[in-house]
């Protein structure tokens, strides 16, 4: 049984949970207050505070993880294992979404009001989202620009190259390695300060959401929302649960272990908002530092399980709502296209919707107008997308550490007791 240290009202996850509940009440009872620019700014401001340190955290942890490894082949081996794991587990997520969508067929008989104007921006952003462009965009125009924009993949690429460069320097790079390590600790210190504002951010984000869409929005297209929640839950408990059991721990205990991070994600709808704290907790859990430094940042672009489930499930839902019958071949196309387009989502709020637009554009142009069908409730599915993504990336880091033979089982069982 979890026993919080100190007064209950000083425990972060309790503060965040209370803030979310208050935010729901304010948005419901006083929607004018909930939708005010100042309340909205509380949520937006907290996410910006977190995002400002994402790039430095990724750079420092990846560089440190690689630079401290004596064997360059190990870094390549970890990378290959991580990508192999990502693709296999992502395929399970995509297939589960297709299976549940075909079994339940929640879209049949729906005739919702389509707000095409509201989704025009997402469709426009999705039009240029091609595989070739995605690969080219991994290469930054400048390192400074990548860090300034906080582009995860671009920063990751430079960090990997810089880490290998420091590794090749040997003893001459010792001072720089120490500097990077110290910088990482300093940035984690910034995160600990910023996290004190998590309840305020969660309140603002939730109050604005309920105030903007109204409590009735929670009942719109409830079939799809409920189906997505159930499917994501099955994926976490069964697929990720089996992986966790293979390593030797309980998925439920792991979820309890990262509950602070999950509640922050729940309030902000962005899995990136908890990335730095997740990496720190995974190291305390017994995961190898080099593995955490490589797997977790990479997973935020290549291991988005919640986004994968959402895309196949939502695509089938839209097709059913529009009366479009998709044959087996077309559904296989959805699987392949979604596997590619999901790599462009980075865990930021709305990214899953953009990738859905990109998937529909490629699979069948006649489905594109149906994007508006799920727009009004996308906000209420983005939380589960983000929650599933962060749990999936945490399990990935533990599994790859175990696969590498670098998982401290003593620490693992001590933290998850």
Automatic annotation (TrEMBL):
GO molecular-function term, one example from the UniProt record: succinate transmembrane transporter activity
Gene Ontology biological process: L-aspartate transmembrane transport
Localization: Cell inner membrane
Domain of life: Bacteria
Record membrane topology: Multi-pass membrane protein
Transmembrane residue ranges: 12-30, 50-70, 82-104, 152-169, 190-210, 222-244, 309-328, 348-374
Keyword Lipid metabolism attributed: no
SUPFAM superfamilies: Proton glutamate symport protein
Family to which this protein belongs: Belongs to the dicarboxylate/amino acid:cation symporter (DAACS) (TC 2.A.23) family.
Record's protein name: C4-dicarboxylate transporter DctA
Source species of the chain: Bradyrhizobium cytisi
